[in-house]
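Researcher: Structure prediction, please.
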Amino acid sequence: MSKKIITEMNIKQIPSGTIFKIGFICNISIWGVVALIFGVMGMSGMDIVKWNDANVYGIQALVVAFLICFVFAICGSVVLMLGGLIGSRLMGSSSLGKLSYFVETEN
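Model: Predicted structure follows.
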């Protein structure tokens, strides 16, 4: 006959630096695609990329698009990091940070 035992495992807190790095990688990949599209459109002569109320064309459009992408990625990553910090403080006192599972033992 086998017994079922409930085992609990505590999920350790993820450091805020790790949350920032994961968020930055995700943001830079998404905004990088957008920046590449806008930069190529600006290089081809379309009025897509602006800097100080002046349209930017050529290679400068690509550089400015990636610069704007980098700023948006940093801002988004900081928001994710702060949300992770607040969430970890709230979840630290609850039982949601625990993983419960059954283990069968044979006797």
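Model: The first helix runs from residue 16 to 43.
Researcher: Thanks, that helps.
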